[in-house]
Amino acid sequence: MNIQIFGTNKCFDTKKAMRYFKERNIKYQFIDMKEKGMSKGEYNSVKQSVGGLDAMLDEKCKDRDALALIKYIADEDKDEKVLENQKVLKTPIVRNGKQATVGYCPEIWKVWN
Question: What pTM does this model have?
Fold first, then answer.
């Protein structure tokens, strides 16, 4: 397994995800989204895996203005805006190669190999 966890140090679910993998002795790479966000390739891979941008957006994010803008701009501009402002994404985003989850999903991680 090649696990990447995208999140922030303050996010409770991100901490739970890191603890989940640590308790099972599964190595993971943590990427702090405050310091370094997702690359365009990583973002597109996750978006395709989870079923689109709507599944990735955090309705309760602090930056409501950015979230509203992303929801109502033209579809072809949405990805660029999200990459500029990754605070609107739910965390943790956990990747395992081409597989990915958004949020705390231990029932899905259990079946990864």
Answer: 0.90
- Residues 6 or more apart whose CB falls under 8 angstroms from that of 82 comprise 43, 53, 56, 70, 88, 89
Measured CA to CA in angstroms, residue 74 lies from 31, 64, 67 at distances of 29, 18, 13
> What is the C-alpha end-to-end distance of the chain, expressed in Å?
6
What letters, b where the CB count within 10 A reaches 16 and e where it falls short, cover 23-44?
eeeeebeebebeeebbeeebbe
Q: Is the dihedral of CA 79, 110, 13, 31 positive or negative?
A: negative
> Block means of pLDDT (10 residues each) for the chain, length 113 residues?
92 95 95 91 93 90 89 89 91 93 94 85
Q: Between β-strands 93-96 and 3-7, what pairing exists: parallel, antiparallel or unpaired?
A: antiparallel
